[in-house]
Design brief:
Chain lengths: 112, 113
């Protein structure tokens, strides 16, 4: 079992819809959780971080964390074609939380 | 303020050759990371350095060595390159608490023939 699992997709949604991306992790002592966006041929960039159970909203993005279920999700409201990218879930674990493990990523396509 | 820089951008090696990938950051971050990215595999952690003077193995350390030369620089060495090491290599530096955001370099595309 991978430490961080994501559905590889592709996930296709129409413009203006809500895109829902999911991630599960195996290590219960994981401390902090991140969503990075990566456009084709580019470097990953952070879009959301979350550290405690519940929801965290930032503009059109909402991250949700459920530590009991070891589950993290990202909702993108009013999806735009510019949101088409690969979304990587990442988890910090280990002593001091310095060891970062990424999932394989979910490819999202937003159709105009 | 260049952020995270990596050299070279592209490299082709023959099996058995060695090379060092260079990474530098100018954001005064304590922690730095090396990842490789293969199609469909996401980012896999090779080595990381939580602070100057320390390095630790990640998920896929075999065939690699690292050096944290100083706070700014973190290099990755392939002693005897193998075709399985063909990949895109990303270096990242990590901002401290509370954000813990990682900032990535542009990547090095390495091909081993």
């Amino acid at each position: 079992q991978k430490e961080v699992e994501q559905n590889s997709g592709p996930l296709s949604v129409p413009e203006g819809a809500i895109a829902s991306l999911n991630c599960t992790y195996s290590d219960r002592v994981s401390q902090s959780f991140f969503w990075y966006r990566q456009y084709s041929g580019k470097s990953p960039e952070l879009i959301m971080s979350i550290y405690s159970n519940g929801d965290k909203e930032d503009g059109r993005f909402t991250a949700q964390l459920n530590k009991a279920s070891q589950y993290v999700s990202l909702l993108i409201r009013d999806s735009q074609p510019s949101d088409s990218a690969t979304y990587l879930c990442a988890v910090n674990r280990g002593t001091g939380g310095f060891k970062t493990i990424f999932g394989a990523g979910t490819r999202l396509f937003v159709k105009a | 303020n260049a952020g995270v820089t990596q050299t070279p951008k592209f490299q082709v090696l023959k099996t058995g050759q060695s090379m060092t990938l260079q990474c530098a950051q100018d954001m005064n971050h304590n922690s730095m990371y090396w990842y490789r990215q293969d199609p469909g595999m996401g980012l896999r952690l090779i080595y990381y350095s939580a602070s100057e003077g320390t390095t630790d193995k990640g998920e896929v350390p075999n065939g690699y060595n690292v050096s944290r030369l100083n706070k700014r620089e973190f290099s990755l060495r392939l002693e005897s390159a193998a075709p399985s090491q063909t990949s895109v290599y990303f270096c990242a530096s990590r901002e401290g608490a509370p954000t813990d955001t990682q900032y990535f370099g542009p990547g090095t595309r390495l091909t081993v023939l």
